[in-house]
Amino acid sequence: MNKPRILIVEDEPGIADTICYVLASDGLDPLHCATGTEALAALGQGDFTLAILDVGLPDINGFELFRRIQAVRELPAIFLTARSEEIDRVVGLELGADDYVAKPFSPRELAARVRGVLRRVAKSQAAAPAETPSATALEIDGECRRVRYYGQALELSRYEFGLLQTLASRAGRVFSRDELLTTVWNDADSIDRTVDTHVKTLRAKLATVTPDFDPIITHRGIGYAFVDQLPARRP
Ligand code: CA
Questions:
Q1: pTM of the model
Q2: Regarding the domain delimited by 138-226, which CATH topology (the fold level of the hierarchy) does it fall under?
Q3: Ligand 1: distance of its center to the CA of 42 in Å?
Q4: How far is ligand 1, taken at its centre, from the CA of residue 104, in Å?
Q5: CA 117/CA 78 separation, integer angstroms
Q6: pLDDT of residue 86
Q7: 78 CA distance to ligand 1 centroid (A)?
Q8: Cα of 195 from ligand 1 centre, angstroms
Q9: pLDDT per residue over 35-69, tens digit each?
């Protein structure tokens, strides 16, 4: 079995060396880049399982780097930040980061977070395909993580996909934000706004197909539900 490749983007050589060392001794295959530019180039040349991104990089900020990576491919990420302010955590999680570690951190702690994210990714990839409310209006292929909505393929991020899969698996049922955090993010400690943000981006993508019809219903103060039944023909 191939070792999972981990992309590490960190401009402080001492920290980068420590991370590489601890991950390599954990049976992973780390690749270090000192700048965002270098990292974007490296991404084109290999298949990575996870990225560890320093927020304070010399060329572009780690959040921006994450956005650019996600524009090209879906890659789980853990942010490293020197600042322990809540704002970084919020921004990181809203962007869809999988975890966040504040500097200074112990290499063992980071290694444990990495293992946690890798486990979650493996688990979500193994998840069974969901039952869909209508085989033709919405087709969800859980194995290939592909969605067709009224015949049109949608490019969804991992969390948008998880949200849609979960909501559509039991059409009409209201899912609370906490439930969605636990099911889709596997993390009850995350924040409610994470769900709202991803519902918003998911809706925007569905609206590219059905601009005048929103299949996601907001239950104010409770959560979200998928419509009982999608119209057979595109509304
Ligand atoms: Ca830095």
A1: 0.56
A2: Arc Repressor Mutant, subunit A (1.10.10)
A3: 19
A4: 12
A5: 8
A6: 62
A7: 14
A8: 29
A9: 999 999 998 877 899 999 999 999 999 999 998 88
For the chain, what are the domain ranges?
5-126, 138-226
Contact predicate 130/142, CB 8 Å: yes
Same fold, 5-126 and 138-226: no
C-beta atoms surrounding 41 within 10 Å: 11
Environment of ion ligand 1 (residues, CB < 5 A): 11, 54, 56
User: From ligand 1's centre to the CA of 101, what distance in Å?
Assistant: 13
Considering the four listed CATH numbers 3.40.50.300, 2.30.38.10, 3.40.50.2300, 2.160.10.10, the one that applies to the domain covering 5-126 is 3.40.50.2300
Tokens 């239950």, residue? 219
Between the CA of 17 and the centroid of ligand 1 the distance, in Å, is 13
Q: How far is CA 74 from CA 9, 69, 150, 203, in A?
A: 17, 7, 24, 19
Over residues 95-111, the pLDDT tens digits come to: 778 888 888 889 889 99
Contact between 164 and 156 (Cβ < 8 Å)? yes
- Provide the pLDDT for residue 216: 96
- pLDDT tens digits for range 156-206: 998 999 999 999 988 888 888 888 888 888 765 667 678 888 999 999 999
